[in-house]
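ESCALATION

Customer reports they have been waiting on this structure for their group meeting. Please prioritize. Original submission:
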Amino acid sequence: MTNDRCIQLLATCDGLFFPIRQGDDHRARATINQRRRAYLSRGLPYAAVKGDAECRKARERSLAEDVQAGAVVVYKPRGRTLGIRLSQDVDAHFREKLGLPGWDNSLVVLHEMFRQVSRGHAKKYIGWQWLSEAALTGIEWGDNDNRGVYVALTADLLPALWRGFALSNSDRDGRAWYALSAAGMELVKGRQKDGRGLPPSTFPPADPPPGDEALYTQYKALRRAEIIELLSAELGDPSELGAIPLPVSWPGG
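Update from on-call: job pushed to the front of the queue and completed.
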């Protein structure tokens, strides 16, 4: 699989799991919620190629080679479009290559979220225990000079978000909140039980080494394009309600 194709898949995945900051855009929230659920169960749609039989066979051979090489995971749901996502190894390789945080950073944040939930610092809403980006980073909302810390937190959590170990949402003012999923809670509990828990001193996680600047610029443009597309996409299922915005009245810290 080419670098361009891998970066496209990575950027599309990350754009999908970036926190929804359009608090009042119910259609966009519903679209994103629907596509996130679909990704967790069957990856990204792998549409059939247009062209003659030879073109289709060539694409099928290319996909089979990518699967054989361990580059992608393919889902074949009955009666639905083929699904595809990067394998965990290739995802990790390209995050490192682009200078993006990887799974180790996500684990650090998941452990910190578990600690804060255990101490009663989370807000319970629609079945989940939510922690604000302000509480997790120690940077109050309105501190525009340090808003980059929120972006760094999101980047740290993306590997956990697309694996289904964490959830993201926002209030109507577009401020992000995060929660451990049931799988995320079990993951941290299991690691602590078998002696692999991470101490508080590991949080916040260290920044990754710089990556390939040109590839990162390409990734960032593709990720932004994915987010823009999501905000204007047609909703596949009109009955989808989307993620309910969190209360604006909640303090962040």
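Sent to customer with the following note: The mean pLDDT is 90.
Escalation resolved.
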